[in-house]
Structures are given as C-alpha cells and as structure tokens.
Amino acid sequence: MKYSENIKLRNARKRLEMLKSFYKHLLVYIVVNIILFAIRGNILGFFQNTSPDKNFIEWIDWNILIVPIFWGIGLLFHAAKVFQYRFKFIKNWEERQLERYVKEE
C-alpha cells in the first residue's frame, strides 16, 4: 500500500468514526428527550396534586423544556462539524477577505 493510500484510508476511518459518534449522539438525544417528555406529564401531574407551590411546578416544566433546546443546539454544532458544513455567512466573509487581499497585493 502506498503512503498516500494509507493517509486516505486513515482519513476515511476518522470520518467514519466521527459519523458514528454523531449518530450515537443523535440516538441518545432522541431517546432521552422521549423519556423526558413521556415522564413530564406524570411528574407535573404528581406535583400539581401534592404541591401548593406553583413556582416549583413551573421550574420543573421549564427545566424539562430547556434541556432539549440547548442540547439540540449542541447537536447542530456537532452535525456541522461532522458533515463539514460551512455556514454561508462565513464563506461569504472569507471570499470578501480573499478579494480584499488580492487587491492589496
């Protein structure tokens, strides 16, 4: 095997591991959030019947709702890294900077 083929194979394995890691992360995200929303009604129902404090009930509700939002943002960044997505505004900025540097030269 040539050296360049070894490098390509190593890079392909690295990308595959990153992809597997992302899919595992996505699976855990889905399973945990399904469990959270499934028990959300039960927990809130229990505390609504036993707790006179409405602030505590709202606190539990917001915590259960906030977890998927922030975790989802992290998951989006993970996906962007794995799939090597370049945000359009970054690409546009890079092109403008390149044009500016070429004009300066």
Automatic annotation (TrEMBL):
* Transmembrane portions of the chain: 21-39, 59-80
Q: Where is the 2TM domain?
A: 11-102
> One of this protein's Pfam families, by short name?
2TM
User: Which keywords are on file for this protein?
Assistant: Membrane, Transmembrane, Transmembrane helix
Descriptive protein name: 2TM domain-containing protein
Native source species: Aequorivita sublithincola (strain DSM 14238 / LMG 21431 / ACAM 643 / 9-3)
